């Protein structure tokens, strides 16, 4: 196996990547929509937005791959960032650089690879938009142009995101190491530590803006049955896909977290309890409206939700408990419903 050498400007490249403040941040529904489009447009099993970090490649968005990162030493994308044009490997079994690579010989069995490098405004290579498939294939001229156009959209979005106030606020609030400890690797949502971090921050914003802090407690219905009947890999995919649908349904300013297991908590600033219930209902419908596609079947998944507004002088722990109690009532009354806590 031939690992990619470091670029001559590796220090500057790494600094540019760090300055974007995008590593170890939650999945982005806009980028997820783009990788989903790329996967379907090219008819491949996997589409990724891969960022090349010091010793790893980390996936900001992924379709068709369960892991959140891999070592840089086995990365095809680490080769792709060494050039200005796309790297296309039509058949890894016939390429001496990759034929004995562990990700070729074992899952995900990369046979075809096409990666278009992504650059920042100063033309520092950050990573790639890449396509992967377990069968050999080639891209014609028109397909290469489509891949280039999609990569251009990703670049533009990352640059706009970097300029946004939301990125500035996140940089001020959390270091990269703190973010890594608050990110759930499976779903790429904030974990319970992230929930506890953002609760007082969102409460302070609510007080300043004259809004109320709403908490939505979500639990996937009959999730144990998914693991028992379809296996834990299928269960992981259901969690990942449910997280994608939640993130795509709520507003950009809402905070989506995985509390543990099949439980999720969303923080939302709202005018009243009816607005909070509307958000919960959008989440419920996003999960239930379309089946989740597994490798050999489709699964109709539902979710139960409990909602609570943080009351004056109430602790966030008490409000979470009330939302959890409303969730319990939703399950007791038949599941696949959203209920407000009294």
From TrEMBL:
Keywords, alphabetical: Nucleotidyltransferase, Transferase
Tagged with keyword Protein biosynthesis: no
SUPFAM superfamilies assigned to the protein according to its UniProt record, in alphabetical order: GAF domain-like (SSF55781), Nucleotide cyclase (SSF55073)
GO MF terms, alphabetically ordered: diguanylate cyclase activity
Gene3D superfamilies: 3.30.450.40, 3.30.70.270
Pfam families recorded: GAF, GGDEF
GGDEF domain boundaries: 211-342
Domain of life according to the entry: Bacteria
Statement: the UniProt record of this protein carries the keyword Methyltransferase: no
EC code: 2.7.7.65
Protein's name in the database: Sensor domain-containing diguanylate cyclase
Organism whose genome encodes this protein: Ectopseudomonas khazarica
Source organism phylogeny: Bacteria, Pseudomonadati, Pseudomonadota, Gammaproteobacteria, Pseudomonadales
